[in-house]
Amino acid sequence: MKFDLKTLPALPGVYLMKDVSGDVIYVGKAKSLDKRVRQYFQSKRNLSPKTVTLVKHIDDIEYIITDSEVDALVLEANLIKKYKPRYNVRLKDDKRYPYVKVTINSEFPRIFLTRRRLMDGAIYFGPYTNAKAIRTTLDIISRIFMLRQCKKKIEPGKTRPCLNYHIKRCMAPCKEGLDKEEYRRRVMEAVRLLKGETSGLLKDLDKKMRFFAENQDYESAAIIRDQIDSVKSISEQQIATSGTDDRDVIAAVSDEKAVYIQVFYVRQGSMVGKADFTLLGANTSESIEESMAQFVKQYYQDSPIPPEILVQYELPDSEIIVKWLCQRSGRDVRVHVPQRGDKKKLVEMAARNAEMSKRMAGLKSTPSESAIGALEALKDVLHLETLPLHIEGFDISNISGTNAVGSMVYFENGRPASSKYRQHNIKTVKGIDDFAMMAEVVHRRYSRLLKNKEPLPDLILIDGGPGQVGAAKSSLDSLGLDIPMIGLAKRFEHIITTKKGPDEVIILPHSSPALKLLMHIRDEAHRFAVSSHRRRRSASLTHSELDSIPGVGSSRKKVLLENFDSIDKIRMSSVEELSSLDGISKNLARKILQHLNK
């Protein structure tokens, strides 16, 4: 190792461990850099397996001295976020639920949805798990309180009011003479609604609805009725809890791959939402308490801090963490483990949800029992050496040879992995030749895998009969590959193999789980091919040589391409054929042919 441990100071700070390539592989903080870093180089019997592996890869160490341990904690979190070291746990946010943001600190506040909570002086409500309901409620707020929605700079008298003002959806702060106090009063009324103080608003809406109904304005009454339902929907998605304070509830479970964190958000005594997080890089050799401490330090770097945080376990360095949270929030923050009552029940409920997240993550990474049954049946039917966990399916889509597209779908553990789907625009084949198109797509796919040294599939499924299968097999042979390949003919759902003789066609009952899986892959390949072809055909309708011909607009271009399929066929047609179409005169037909045959 390049670094001399004797040069370490006995001061608080952050240390960065690097490998031989100079990459940062671990970031840590210490009250005393000298004592903390030396602990990594003691006897292996006192170290966890992960730490032993880390030490093997350390080639150099850098350190940064800070004024206090709290400063070191902040710097540590920032550096982890920047370098993403291999041996640090890293926070993965599985989903960001929407919040409602009220820019109360601006002259004319706005109310809008956001996915990030920042310490910027604004008021935040949420997170909300029912995004549709909260969007509808914001629309109601816009109609009732007429608050501005635009982001433009407000300069009264210098900007013309937009359409929202004229349709009575905005008070138009950009217009001169607006009562600022009245505008802010309306903002605070909207805030009351978001806080759940809906009884007064519901009474007003109910009066309006009855007024419209009595005057037989049923359309307006129905609109108010929908507004009432939306306001009630926001109230109903809250879960009552003990107390009236704001708090976050944090629980965690772990397996050999990661730590799964569950956060409940309690606002004004009601649980308004939850979020799932995953700490990557953590393992069972580290304590769950240490992982939760890492989560708290990373999560609250850019998230608002409630007055109370309930946790499942006592956190290491809890005094330092609490001190840091107080500094960031500007008020007292309490972090504690509840021992009894409703708060303990909340933590236990969060722990059960974290356990469910872990279970769902396991289900995503391993095939289900039904999928295993189908894969095993397929293995037996096709006499495969291994279970076909990775299957790729191919199909071709075109109309009279135009805009031809080849699709490749990827199934992993019996399930579609849509992120690995690929589309291939046919480049070398002209005219109608499905066999040659299939050969081109298969050759391009597996030549690329060979070039990039990527893993090959366990089985290839071709949508088609013996002709398509033979063409695809010839491409594999030219690449020197021997991957099991079959086809699935649409008409009778017969399995076509590359073997000759009685085993060339395999007929399975429609109740067979193996056949159902193959049909699923075939149908998915067909769906993806058709949608890809449709996108390409739409693009050809939008951009073509016809665009530069005077008198040919989008409607006439569409008529021409729908009847002749391609520019080449239009070029080879006659004036009489073109002028027989709707909207095409003989004079325009001559212009089109003259332009295309230059």
Features of the shown structure:
extended; 598 residues; DNA excision; eight-stranded mixed β-sheet; alpha+beta; 19 helices; seven-stranded mixed β-sheet; GIY-YIG endonuclease; Nucleotidyltransferase, domain 5
Task: Explain what the structure shows.
- The protein is of the alpha+beta class.
- 42% of the residues lie in helices and 19% in strands.
- The chain has five domains: 5-87, GIY-YIG endonuclease (3-Layer(aba) Sandwich), CATH 3.40.1440; 99-237, no CATH class; 247-364, Nucleotidyltransferase, domain 5; 371-538, 2-Layer Sandwich (Nucleotidyltransferase, domain 5); 544-596, Orthogonal Bundle (DNA polymerase, domain 1).
- The protein has helices at 33-38, 49-56, 69-83, 131-145, 163-166, 180-194, 199-214, 218-236, 288-299, 318-329, 341-365, 369-382, 434-451, 466-478, 513-542, 554-564, 567-571, 575-579, 586-596, and strands at 13-18, 24-30, 60-65, 90-93, 99-102, 111-114, 123-125, 239-240, 247-254, 258-267, 270-280, 308-311, 334-336, 390-399, 402-412, 415-416, 422-425, 459-463, 485-488, 495-497, 505-506.
- The chain starts with 12 loop residues before the first strand and ends with a helix.
For the termini, the CA-CA separation is: 73 Å
- Please count the helical segments: 19
How many beta-strand runs?
A: 21
CATH architecture of the largest domain: 2-Layer Sandwich
Largest sheet: 8 strands, mixed
| CATH superfamily annotation of the largest domain | UvrC, RNAse H endonuclease domain
CATH topology of the largest domain: Nucleotidyltransferase, domain 5
Provide the number of structural domains.
5
What proportion of the residues is helical, as a percent range?
40-55%
Radius of gyration: 33 Å
Helix and strand content put the structural class at alpha+beta
Portion in strands:
15-25%
CATH class of the largest domain: Alpha Beta
The poorly predicted ranges are: 238-244
Subunit structure: Interacts with UvrB in an incision complex.
Domain UVR: 199-234
Keywords: Cytoplasm, DNA damage, DNA excision, DNA repair, Excision nuclease, SOS response
Subcellular location: Cytoplasm
